[in-house]
Amino acid sequence: MKTEKEKMVAGERYWAHGEEIVNQRKEVKRILHKLNVTEYYTDKFRDVINELCPNAAKDLRLEPPFYCDYGDLIYAEENVFVNFGAVFLDGGTIRIGANTMFAPGVHVYTARHPLDIADRREWEDCAPVVIGKDCWIGGHATILPGVTIGDRVVIGAGAVVTKDVPADSLAVGNPARVVKKLNQK
Question: How confident is the model over 8-25, as pLDDT tens digits?
Answer without folding.
Answer: 999 999 999 989 999 999
